[in-house]
Amino acid sequence: MVQDNQNEKDNFLYPRNRYYGEVKVENLIFNANLQEFSHKVGYITALETSGKLSSDEAYKQIKTLWKQLKRSKKELLIGKEPPIVP
């Protein structure tokens, strides 16, 4: 019973949408990273809007998250064609 409530809470706070692209492990991982980025940016902007976080601090946090997302894309080789082996 307690576990069910926790699952409902997690689904509400951290919703996950299904992936519609080409099903490859690296695409699925990047999609999960992208959704996490989106959720965190939403929280940061809400904190900034409510006055709990300064604009500068919100910008710095979002910039850090963006760099992490870019790094994950680069490490997963998303958007790069594999070399053609003859």
From TrEMBL:
Record-linked InterPro entries: DUF7219
Listed Pfam families: DUF7219
Origin superkingdom: Bacteria
Designated name of the protein: Isopropylmalate/homocitrate/citramalate synthases
